[in-house]
Amino acid sequence: MTDLAPAQEPEPEQLDLAVAVLLVEMARADYDLAETEQAAIIDQLAAGFGLDESDAVALTEQARKRAEHSVSLHEFTRAVHDGMDYDEKLRVVEMLWRVALADSNLDKYEDYLIAKLGELLYVSRGDVIRIKARVLESSEGS
Asked: I need a labelling partner for 62 at 20 to 30 A (CA). Which of 12, 25, 33, 113 fits?
């Protein structure tokens, strides 16, 4: 009988890329990649991972390339799930909502994708909805 090695935790760079891919997919979910959504991805990556703007742009480009060649989001959601605690995953869900709502239009595909990603990240539906309400409220005050 062989011992199974425990799954390795993703490196921080892998987590950054995994989250960036999810954000890129969120922006593409409604088949209309608005400039405001692209800017929101860069802003969220910079704020969320302490990157300067040029590093956030580079990470976004790397994520876009990975997303184009990926057949599933499972590898990215698995990396986030394995490498982040619940509070960090809540922050990722908030980042997703901020990208989805950056163009002031919530498409049914964006709404569905966040719900699905929340499930894959094992974030409760109630928390996903509460975060949505908080992001909507903060964007109305802007």
From this structure: 113
- Tell me the per-residue pLDDT of 58-97, one tens digit each, with 9 for 90 and over: 999 999 999 988 888 999 999 999 999 999 999 999 999 9
CATH value of 12-140 in 3.40.30.10, 1.10.3680.10, 3.10.560.10, 3.30.70.100: 1.10.3680.10
What is the C-alpha separation between 24 and 19, in angstroms, rounded? 9
Angle between helices 86-100 and 125-140 (to 10 degrees): 50
Tell me the C-alpha distance between 65 and 54, whole Å. Answer: 17
Question: Would you say 47 and 84 are in contact if contact means Cβ atoms under 8 Å apart?
Answer: no
Task: Find, among 105, 81, 108, 102, the residue nearest to 92 by Cα.
Answer: 81
Rounded to two decimals, the pTM is 0.87
